[in-house]
Each structure stands twice: as structure tokens, then as C-alpha cells.
Write a structure and sequence with these properties.
Elements: E1 2-7, E2 12-19, E3 22-30, H1 39-50, E4 59-65, H2 69-86, E5 90-94, H3 95-101, E6 109-115, E7 121-129, E8 132-142, H4 144-147, E9 155-158, H5 160-164, H6 166-173, E10 177-179, H7 189-201, H8 220-228
Parallel strand pairs: 1-4, 4-5, 6-9, 9-10
Antiparallel strand pairs: 1-2, 2-3, 6-7, 7-8
Length: 229
């Protein structure tokens, strides 16, 4: 099963093509520019390297959120358009779940953190049970110190929120806090493809027509308007 996977949830942009459990091509870019400037080119280059046509794939996967509102809109709209044009299934993958997967072998408890601005983080926690990563805390957005209240065991932190608030995490949890390398804070599209493949194997996908980003909270503009009122 050939899958195109895309992540644009943070400053990192990642595109991968996989065939079953095999990685065919992957491109990663970290940029302060909007992802709309390079995403289409990265998709085209990944397809060229893999020797595949973008419209001839079996399924499409994309990070649905949480993360940057603009980044998510760009990634979701691009991949949704490709899936609709090809008449193929689409699978939305949680940014937090993808990060947790990339740190799953570190400690039994993993806490992915994504900077949500306004001194808050998007977070959840996952625990390894019987070799399977299971969500322990539903996705939420809170101040870092509030998010840490759910941590009751040695825990690995991953994501740009873990990099940004490392000192707060260390002050609260001491030696019980572990951190991945800063380069691991970026979501790999190959991870997104792997999670999507698991769902597709079970005949599970999202409805293309109404597929939309999962923001978790309102945008900054909406919050500002509400505050002014």
C-alpha cells in the first residue's frame, strides 16, 4: 500500500512516501517561511525520488493537529485536495501521537508537548502497555506547570514545547524528567505514514469531504476578539 504522508503542524515540514512498512522517500525542512512556499515542491520531489505519480497512490495521510493554525490549514487542504482528486482515502494523524511514537522506546511514560503560544502547550501523555502505546491523557492545552500535574512516573518529553519549557519541567520533576535530543522535536512524515498504515490495515480512514484540522483550541484572533468583548 503506497501512502503519501505530510506534516506541517510546526516550523518543520516533512513529506514521505511509503509502501507498506518500507520507506521510499522522505524530505524534511525547517523554515520560518510559510509552508505554502515549499510543500508542493517537496511533494513533487519526493514522488520523483520514489518514481511514483502523486495521483497514483493508494492513500494519503496528514497531521491534523494540534499545532500552528496556518500550518495545519496548508497541510490539510493540500492533502485533502490530492485525496479528493484521486478518489483515495485520507487518514488524519494526531501531531501529539506522532511525537509520542518517536519517543516510545525511551520510558514507559511519554509526554509530547507542542508550543501553543500564550505561554501554553498542547499536550497529552502516553504509556507503553504490552508493546503498544496507549493514550493516557486526552489532548488538551494548558500552561506547562498545569500539564505536568498529570505526570506521576519517570517520563520522556518530546516536541518543541519540551525544548521551550525544559527548565520548568526540570524544576517540577527533577530526575524524573527525560528529554529527547532537540533534533527529535520535529515530526517525521514517515511516522505519520506508519500510523496511517495501521489504521488502513484495519479498514479505517477519515471521511474526505468533511475532513478538517483538529485545532484543540480557538485561534489567537478568536481569543483576542473574545477578550476585547
Amino acid at each position: 500500500m503506497k501512502i503519501l504522508a505530510v506534516d506541517t503542524a510546526t516550523s518543520g515540514c516533512s513529506v514521505a512516501l511509503t509502501d507498506g512498512e518500507h520507506l521510499l522517500a522522505e524530505l524534511n525542512l525547517v523554515s520560518t517561511q510559510t509552508h505554502s512556499r515549499h510543500l508542493a515542491g517537496m511533494i513533487g520531489e519526493a514522488c520523483r525520488l520514489a518514481g511514483l505519480a502523486v495521483g497514483g497512490l493508494d492513500a494519503y495521510a496528514v497531521v491534523k493537529g494540534p499545532g500552528s493554525f496556518t500550518g495545519l490549514r496548508i497541510g490539510v487542504s493540500t492533502v485533502k485536495g490530492l485525496a479528493e482528486a484521486a478518489g483515495r482515502p485520507i487518514v488524519g494523524v494526531s501531531a501529539l501521537q506522532a511525537l509520542a511514537e518517536q519517543a516510545a522506546a525511551s520510558t514507559p511514560l511519554v509526554c509530547p508537548l507542542i508550543d501553543a503560544r500564550r505561554e501554553e502547550v498542547y499536550f497529552s501523555t502516553y504509556r507503553m502497555i504490552g508493546g503498544i502505546l496507549v493514550e493516557r491523557h486526552l489532548e488538551d492545552v494548558l500552561r506547562p506547570d498545569q500539564a505536568l500535574q498529570s505526570i506521576d512516573a519517570p517520563c520522556t518529553f518530546i516536541g518543541n514545547g519540551a525544548v521551550l519549557y525544559r527548565s520548568i519541567i526540570r524544576d517540577n520533576l527533577g530526575d524524573g524528567a527525560y528529554f529527547t535530543h532537540p533534533l527529535a522535536q520535529y515530526i517525521r512524515a514517515s511516522t505519520v505514514a506508519r500510523l496511517a498504515f495501521k489504521r488502513l490495515e484495519n479498514g479505517d480512514s477519515d471521511e474526505v469531504t468533511h475532513f478538517a484540522p483538529a485545532y484543540v483550541r480557538k485561534s489567537d484572533a478568536q481569543i483576542d476578539r473574545r477578550t476585547r468583548r
